Structure formats: structure tokens, C-alpha cells
Amino acid sequence: MNIVFLIVQQTMFFSIPLLIVALGGMFTERGGVTNIALDGMMIMGAFTSIFFINQMQGSMSGQTLLILAILIAVGTGMVFSLLLAYSAINMKSDQIIGGTALNMFAPAFAIYVARTLQDNGVQQITFSNTFRIPSVPLLGDIPILGGLFFKNAYITTYIGFTILVLAVIVLYKTKFGLRLRACGEHPQAADSVGINVYRMRYAGVVISGALAGLGGLVFVIPTSTNFNATVAGYGFLALAVMIFGQWKPLRILFAAFFFGLMKTIASAYSVIPVLATASIPSDIYKMVPFIATLVVLAFSSKKSQAPRAVAVPYDKGSR
Amino acid sequence: MRKAKDIMLSDGANNAFSSLFAIFIGLVFGFIVLLISNPSEAVQGFTIILKGGFNTNAKGLGQVLYFATPLIMTGLSVGFAFKTGLFNIGAAGQFIMGAFTAVYIGVKWTFLPAPLHWMVAILGAALIGGLWALIPGLMKAYLNVHEVISTIMMNYIGMYTANFLIKATVYDSKKALSMNTAPSSVLPKGGLDYVFYNPLGNGKDLSTVNSGIWIAILLAIVMYIILNKTTFGYELKACGFNKHASRYAGINEKRNIVLSMVIAGALAGIGGALLYLSGANGRHIKVVDVLATEGFNGIPVALLGLSNPIGIIFSAIFISYITQGGNYMQTLDFVPEVIDIIIACIIYFSAFSLVFRSIIPRIMRFRKDKAAATAEAEAAVAGGEQTERREQE
Lengths: 319, 393
Prior knowledge:
The complex is a heterodimer of chains A (319) and B (393).
Chain A: H1 2-30, H2 38-56, H3 62-90, H4 95-117, E1 125-126, E2 133-135, H5 145-149, E3 151-153, H6 155-173, H7 175-185, H8 187-192, H9 197-223, E4 226-227, H10 234-244, H11 249-268, H12 273-276, H13 282-300
Antiparallel strand pairs in A: 1-4, 2-3
Helix pairs in contact in A: 1-6, 1-9, 1-10, 1-11, 2-3, 2-4, 2-9, 2-10, 3-4, 3-9, 6-7, 7-9, 10-11, 10-13, 11-13
Chain B: H1 2-9, H2 11-37, H3 42-51, H4 57-83, H5 91-108, H6 114-143, H7 147-169, E1 171-172, E2 177-178, E3 197-200, E4 203-206, H8 212-229, H9 231-241, H10 243-248, H11 253-276, H12 293-304, H13 309-328, H14 338-350, H15 353-365, H16 369-384
Antiparallel strand pairs in B: 1-2, 3-4
Helix pairs in contact in B: 2-3, 2-14, 2-15, 3-13, 4-8, 4-11, 4-12, 4-13, 5-6, 5-7, 5-11, 5-12, 6-7, 6-11, 8-9, 8-13, 12-13, 12-14, 13-14, 15-16
């Protein structure tokens, strides 16, 4: 039973950042801008917030520090995403190329700044993990369920689910969500009824930046004690999760947990009795999430329901 | 006078202009980064970047060419796929799989005689690199899987596969690197040892550059001919411009997507072979969980070279040149990652180049009364074609 608890808890650690970032990707693509720079935005968000934790952990600890770090991660992601928004919306440049530039920039920037600012000149930023909640009061005592969801948890897990609920409401129940989706499907039509397409697309990109920045922090905190200018390709996995989830929040939740489980198998195979005895090299396990992504995409892309105007710059003059 | 103006108005000059502009902005940005992090040494550090390979004379220039070789190949890989409207981010995976294959053949197939050995190694690398790109190609053509996602996944799968296979077959565990390949598999110097060396006592301190650079340049010319002088190349480019129109014209666009990916993968794979078949003094494959940078740097190389094979030769040498400069800059406590920041900045601004490309001719043509109307019309057409602009010569 303990193994099951462990696997579920691990799956949470890997799934929640995927969920958050994929939801971010959903917002920007629903608005009509493709965001291949999710990985870079995760790195930037993780970098500034972990650096903040590294600097401040002497004077505070626990949930207060984590919440401040979350705000910093969100802010960083938003600012960084403006670069993509400017190139994709104002300059109407190729969104994949702009995103690739940001993906190259983020790790280089994180390494450069870390090595310049840290006294010992190393690129890893270490932090001590004071954020784990051993057991949530009351809820943690529920048999089985408490062990599955309310022990060894992080507030980020619950933030992730809150974001999911908010995403569903915002996308489907608000005027903003309707307008955003219109801009991703047929921006000319949206423009003709007085919606400012540029502004809506900016909103989509900035939301994705905020969520990706947060996702970067959420990914690093439970799985490591240092940040090494990488999020292990998670931003790209999140893109695949978004496609597998067909740009719909609840399906994205399902997809994120599927990949989270794959990733858990890849990283925790040594504690799972059946896999530990199979003596398969670790490199093979590390491939599992990526192979699973390809297989899943092969089956789910044929009838893709991508927003129609995604990756097409909006030009008022064109018809 | 008239002639000079025509040259300035030509597409080629216009494109080169926008690339140079992106490079200029990137360098300025890099200088600002240096200035912020260490004002007193910034000028000195920036000078070292600009001096690039010249910091260590003839040998340094040889090293620039040595490291430009794989960049030409991955740049050709990305650029060739661009021409067909595909974005091959998977050069890193194709590169490392090709590299492993070449090293494996180089170490194990010692029964082959000298010139044949390295040729077979290169062909093997091309084959496996092509195979690695075949999967995303097929998935794109028949299953509608976007090649950007699938090639990224293939990058990671390729990295782990190569690590696994190297450790299982050709691993030098003392150095934690791949083994030296057999002397018969090392690429010949191709006359470059007479030029790129620094005198060392009575002997020569040789650069590792070898005939790989000749092979890369030759392949660039071959790619140029295929794209511009053959029916096959024309069909590939037509698919890049408009998939639906080319299908209507009787071109098998699915076959072309797959072929274009396979050729792109083979080019990247050869890049892996050319870098690592360079003897004991050359590079060896490191077994680390990091995607091959040569693969990713193929993207800026292709963008700066505007996907033109001949342009790619020059842009690869440029990227290699400033990267060498970045390495020498470490003597001043600067972090070499500033080069990556500069390159990222260059890509970012090269994505803007559409704007420059439509503005520059507009300014130039403004004075011509008669031509003004056509220029406006052409600018409008250019605006409508922005999604296909990468394919423009």
C-alpha cells in the first residue's frame, strides 16, 4: 500500500506542473498564438523564484516563502511572455522562430546570471525544501484518501487544481473566454464585432506566461533541491499534453496525469518492485515519457481540433 | 547609378541586409549584457568575442572551421526542411544518432581499408540520421502530427538511445567519453594541415580541422543545385509555398514531406560523423543528459543564412567564430553563455526581418514615381505571403 501512496504522490509532483503549463498553452493557442516557448518561460519562472528562495531562506521559510516565490515566478513568466507577444502580434513574425529564440535565451540567461551573481561561480542554485506538508490537518487523517492526496503534499498541488477550475470557468463561462476563443477561431469575425484582437491575443500570451512561470517553480520544488537552468523538456511535454487534451481543460487534466504516471515510472522505477528487478538500464526508462507522447500523438492528431487561426498572425488588412 | 539601385533592391541584397541587421542588434545586446555584469572589462571582453578565432592565430581559425563543419550540416538540415515548409527542430537527435553510428563504425569495423572506412562511417551516419527523421516525416504526412512536437520528442529519445548505446558498445569509462576511432576512419586532412597550425618549436601545433569542412561545403553546393536546378527541388519548394496548390498541380506532397525530412535527417547525421571522425585530438561524444548544442545551433545558422545553402556556409562560420570568441573570453571571468544570449537575440530579431524586408524596398522605391504603384502592390503581396516568407530566396 505504501508503494501505491508513493506512486500517487510522485505522479502528483510530475502531473501538476504539466497541468498548469498545458493550461497556459491552451489559453494562448485558444487566442490564436502558438507558444513553443513554454519551456523557456518555465525556466525563467523557476530561475527567478528559486533564486529568490535561495537568497531569502535565511530570513523566512515554509509556506510564506513559497507563496512569495510563486508570485515572483508568475510575474517573471508574464514579463518574459511579452517578448513573444510583441514579436508574434505586433511584428507579425513567425511564432515558432520567435518562440525558439526565447527557448534558447532562457537557459543561457539563467546560467549566465547564476554564475555571475553567485559567489562560487556555479550555475546550480541550491535551496532547502521547507515547503512539504507532512499531513494536511483533518484531511490527512481520512483513511486511504488522506494517504493518497493529503500527505507529503505541497500547496502547489491544490493551486494546480484551483487553476484548472478557474480555467474552465474563464474559458467557457465568461465574456473574456468567449472573445478569446473567437480570436483563435476567426479573428476577422471577432474584429468585425468590435473585439480588439491584438489585446485579446496579448491577454492569452500573458496568461500562458504566468502559468508557465508558475509551472517551472512547481516542477522544481518537489523533485529537486537545486535548479540547474533546465526543466528537462517539460515545456515541450506540456505542449504535447495540450494537443493530447485537444485544447480542452478537463481532457488536459486527464492527459497530464497520463504523462505524470509515465514520468513517475521513468524516475521511480527503482522503488517499484516489479520494475526494479527487471534490470532495464535507466536510459530506457528515461525515454518512456517521450515515446509515450509520440504514440499518443500518432493516435490523437488525425482528428485534431486545434484552434483554426493558431499560429497565423492577425493582419487587419488581409481578408 | 541605376545599376547600384537595382542591386540594393534585389531580394538577395535585401535579405542579407536583414540578416546583418539582426546580427548587429544581437551583438549590441551582448555588449550591453557584458556592460551590466562587469563594466570595467566589458570592452575588453567584447573585443575578444569580435576577434573570435583570431585570438589564437592560424590554429584558432582552423578550430573555427572545425566547429563550423557540424553547424553547416545541421544548418543545411534545418534550412532544407524549411524550404519544404517543415520546421526540423530535431537536428539534435539526428545529429547525435549519426555521431554514434559513425563512431561505432569507426571503432568496430576495422576490417575496412582506409578511405573506405571513413566513407562507410559517414554513409552509416547519414542512414541513421535519415531514419531518425523518417519517423516524424511519416507522422507528419500520414497522421497529421506536427513535426515540431515529434522532432522534439525524437531529440530526447535519440539522446537517451545514443547514451545507452555508447555505454553499451564504444565507451571509454576512464575518460567518460566515446573511444578513439581507428586511424583508418579518421578523415584526411585535405591539405588544411599546411595552413592551420601554430609553430611549436620545430614542429607544428596542428588544428583539428580536416577535410570534413570540404565535405560540408561540397554538400552545401549539392543542396543548392538540388533545390534550384532540379524538378525534385522545385517540387519540394512548391510544397513549402502552398501544400494544397502543389497537390492540385499533381505533386505528391506526402512523399515530398517524408523525403524532405529524411534528407534533412541525413544531413544532420553526417554532421555528427564529420565532427567526431577527427582522431584522438578531435571531439569525443560526452555521455550526458544534454541535447547536442550543434543541433539547436543549426536553427540560427539556417535562419541567418536564409535557408540558402551557400548562405548557410557563411552563417555557420560566423556562429562558430563568435562561439570560439566566447570561449576565449573566459580568461576575463566572463561566462561564455553570453554567446548563447547573443545568438538567441539574433534569432529573435531575424524573425522580425519580414518587416525590414518590406520597409527597405519601400523607402528605396519611394522616389520612383512610376514604380511606386507596383511597389505598393508588391508590398501588399509580401504581407499576404508572410507565412511562406522563409521559403523566399
